[in-house]
Amino acid sequence: MIFEFGLLDALLSTMLDVAPIAGILVVFQVAVLRRRLPNPGRMAIGFVMVLFGLALFLVGLEEALFPIGQTMAEQLTAPETIGQQNIADGVDWRNYGLVYAFAAAIGFATTIAEPSLIAVALKAEEVSGGAVRALGLRIAVAVGVAVGVSLGCFRIVTGTPLPWYIIAAYIIVIVQTFRSRRDIVPLAYDSGGVTTSTVTVPVVAALGLGLASSIPGRSPLIDGFGLIAFASVFPIMSVLGYAIGASWWNRWQSARHSSQLSKES
């Protein structure tokens, strides 16, 4: 079974990839800092766990996540799902409503489960003293990814150029940056980066490649890639938009409260 799923090859490849990292850490600890390795036994066990964990993750991507994305894209774009007239009359973006809905749902779900986002959200709540809620930040980021992945699938279906969307999105981000509080801008920019990590990237990439392979006239190389860019920029927009909306709401509530106090006095 190990050879059937390519686990041994994945282990050897992972060892070659991780060995330079371990070597740099050991060299700096011993030769530069001139200190002994703390708990070398635990470090060795951790290194072995990292090797097996990454190897199993790579095998899981190849054997499960990528095929699932391909299969879902093929099923959602099947003639019986979108309508037989689509194949004869050409690609009609209006027939792919289930694709957009699935893309939004899978983008939201994978982002909520993203370990790196959970870590950043918890740290943001801790550092801000509770002013930034971890769950609220995660939901805001997940909504942005959902919208971005869904719009990215719309781009694949229509075949429109990717730069149009990304340039327009970053123009909106620039405008939002100047209208947002300074303390939320770095967190918003980091939120866009942490979403493109271990859980989200494989599923979203598989969805894009599978969708481009299933639609007539689309190239997996030209049209299949690019969903990750949507999943990176739209969370920035959603977090900044959430912060701007919350600021407006707080000011409105304060003005309303002040108006009521002045009327009572």
Tell me the layout of helices and strands.
Blueprint: H1 7-32, H2 40-76, H3 79-82, H4 85-89, H5 97-112, H6 115-127, H7 134-158, H8 162-179, H9 185-194, H10 200-214, H11 220-224, H12 227-264
Helix pairs in contact: 1-2, 2-10, 5-7, 5-10, 6-7, 7-10, 7-12, 8-12, 9-12
Please count the helical segments: 12
Task: Give the structural class.
Answer: mainly alpha
Kindly estimate the percentage of residues that lie in beta strands according to DSSP.
under 5%
Question: Which of globular, elongated, flat, extended, rod-shaped describes the shape?
Answer: flat
Note the gap between the termini.
Answer: 80 Å
Number of domains: 2
Biggest sheet, open or closed, and with what strands and sense? none
Total number of strands: 0
**Rg computed from alpha carbons, rounded to a whole number of angstroms:** 23 Å
Low-confidence stretches: 84-89
Order of helices and strands: HHHHHHHHHHHH
By oligomeric state, this entry counts as single chain
Proportion of residues in helical segments: over 70%
Global mean pLDDT = 83
